[in-house]
Amino acid sequence: MDLTYTDYLFVEELLALQKPRSDPVEHDELLFIVVHQAYELWFKLLLHELDKVKADFVAGRTYPAISTFKRVRTIMKVAVEQVDIVETLTPMSFNSFRDRLDKASGFQSSQFREMEFLLGYKRAEMLKHQKAGTPGYEQLVKRLNEPSVVDTFYTYLAHHGVTIPEHLKTRDVTLPTQPDETVEEGILRLYKSQPDLEILFELMTDFDEGLQEWRYRHIKLVERTIGSKRGTGGSLGVEFLKRSLFHPVFPDLWAIRHRL
Predict the structure, then answer these.
(1) Is 97 annotated as a binding residue?
(2) What residue spans of the chain are helical by DSSP H?
(3) 146: left (phi over 0), alpha (psi -120 to 50) or beta
(4) Fold held by 28-95+148-259
(5) Residue 149 assigned to a binding site
(6) Is 32 marked as binding a ligand?
(7) pTM score, whole prediction
(8) Is 33 annotated as a binding residue?
(9) Is 173 assigned to a binding site?
(10) In angstroms, rounded to a whole number, what is the distance separating the alpha carbons of residues 212 and 76?
(11) 177 annotated to bind ligand
(12) Helix or strand or coil: residue 147?
């Protein structure tokens, strides 16, 4: 039997994964489920692409890294635009099924935390919000203990003559990325002398800006929907989300903007 579109994409199985818990079913619960499942698929793709970026950086491959950052930047734009769909839910329509979520919350998305760790925004304390022994938990532990995209970016910069301080080469990779003046001076020199690297650095900044924009839109979405209520997963809701607002994953690229 010939392979069909439905078979290749497991469409029937995919469409069977939306299972509203409200009874009788609230009309808007399906929208909520579909959008969040779509986010998890985008997160899966982002992790896949950012792992490729790490390999490109280690190998010193500029143009493949440029191509991939174009892709992840575009994915982030789509992720931001999806917030517009969720915002068609009014507070009353969301509250019509919110209690069915019990303690389930986007706060518990292991893939989003994994992406944060992969990008260098590592907070070991976030593991306590995951269920130990699950595949998601184990993957987070792995990401916590391996070099991030930023760590491999240092390797890439070294390929191009940037002096990487010894404390960065031997740093504890379980800690979050911190800006470094020596690295910034090296990036600034490359910005002004190699146009192809300028393109890469700008695409990295675009992606970083998109991630920050997604965080902001997410905060405003939560704020307009539940106000100051605690999150269903037990977090502080909006107040917790604000802690990571405007936190760049490539701080060295932002630190030199006024000097370009």
Answers:
(1) no
(2) 5-9, 11-15, 29-59, 62-86, 91-95, 110-119, 135-144, 149-159, 166-169, 181-193, 195-226, 238-242, 251-255
(3) beta
(4) Methane Monooxygenase Hydroxylase; Chain G, domain 1 (1.20.58)
(5) no
(6) yes
(7) 0.90
(8) yes
(9) no
(10) 10
(11) no
(12) coil
